[in-house]
Design a protein that fits this description.
Order of helices and strands: HEHHEEHHEHHEH
Strand content: 5-15%
Helix content: 40-55%
Number of strands: 5
Strand order of the largest sheet: 2-1-3
Mean pLDDT: 79
Length: 204
């Protein structure tokens, strides 16, 4: 998890510019960071979602280093987030899914209970061009834990809980996974884990 940043730190940050690779447009990034600093000072309104949705033109002429900007924006989002424990994909009532809720189309289709095999074979799309997506390594690690939990619960052993999935938060990166696709899949993970948990309690 990144360290939240203050308005003073943000204004004093010097970002590296690129010479031989694509970077983010300097004027666009500077304008957004000015807006973020104002929000951190209480002089404007900016949400973590706004930060995650930020996109910048990429240029080969002295743009800001992409990874440095992405890391900085992660810290801005953390500073603006009122409740770090609440994941972006958490839904009201997510732990009590409607009867018949199933998986996203790429993982088996509605009406089909998500399985460990579904999770290990799912092919998540990349974020649209010039949009930030969820960090792939972090999403992959959570999905592997979820697949393991579905197998463990089938054998009557505890593992990752539905509540832990709703509380998960991912950093964003250029060329990450499409956020909407990940959020939809995690809704189905929550439904599958919650159903397995209820069945486990009922069998006791």
């Amino acid at each position: 998890m990144s360290t939240p940043i203050t308005a003073a730190e943000l204004r004093g940050t010097a970002l590296r510019t690129t010479r031989f690779s694509a970077g983010y447009d300097v004027a666009e990034v500077d304008a957004f960071l000015d807006r973020a600093a104002a929000a951190l000072e209480g002089a404007g309104v900016l949400t973590p979602d706004d930060v995650h949705a930020a996109s910048f033109t990429q240029t080969w002429r002295g743009g800001y280093a992409v990874d440095e900007v992405d890391d900085l924006l992660d810290r801005v989002a953390d500073a603006l987030r009122p409740s770090p424990a609440l994941g972006r994909h958490a839904r009201t009532g997510a732990l009590e899914p409607p009867r018949g809720a199933g998986t996203a189309g790429s993982a088996g289709g509605r009406g089909h209970r998500l399985t460990a095999a579904d999770l290990r074979s799912v092919d998540l799309p990349a974020a649209p061009l010039l949009r930030r997506g969820y960090a792939r390594a972090e999403v992959d690690a959570l999905l592997e834990r979820a697949a393991d939990a579905l197998e463990r619960r089938g054998a009557g052993r505890p593992g990752l809980s539905a509540e832990e999935v709703t509380e998960a938060v991912f950093r964003t990166r250029a060329r990450g996974y499409d956020q909407g696709a990940v959020d939809a899949l995690l809704d189905d993970v929550v439904a599958a884990l919650a159903a397995a948990e209820r069945e486990g309690h009922g069998a006791r």
